[in-house]
Amino acid sequence: TLAIVDRSGTIVRELGEPMRGLRGPALSPDDRQLAVIVAGTQRDDVWLYDVETGRATQFTFDGTRGDPEWDQAGQLIAYSCGATSRDAH
To answer: What is the pLDDT of residues 27-69, one digit of tens each?
Structure first.
């Protein structure tokens, strides 16, 4: 479960429903959204959480592999993704 905690470690608010395999959280510069990788059964994708409401929205659908990062303006999210190939070399 993602949660907002205060400096003493007390949970202020939980975000969204519990999900498995959460990693790489990145808070937007305005502190309003949290981008996080959610591990799926066959691929990982970036999800965005609204910090105020806790609502989660899937952001990528292509099997992202890397941790998200916001630009300074909070308008763009960079993330790495694994190249996929059916050819074995």
So the answer is: 999 999 999 998 877 788 899 999 999 899 999 887 767 789 9
> 61-66 long-range CB contacts below 8 Å, 24 or more apart?
64/37, 66/24, 66/37
Q: How far is CA 56 from CA 24, 48, 83, in A?
A: 15, 6, 26
What's the CA gap between 38 and 32, in Å, rounded? Answer: 19
φ and ψ of 8, to 5 deg: -85, -5
Q: Answer with the residue of higher pLDDT: 15 or 63.
A: 15
* CB 49 within 8 Å of CB 2: yes
Counting Cα atoms < 13 Å in the Cβ hemisphere of 51 gives 14
CB neighbours (10 Å) of residue 74?
14
Neighbours of 49 (CB within 10 A): 21
Q: pTM value?
A: 0.79
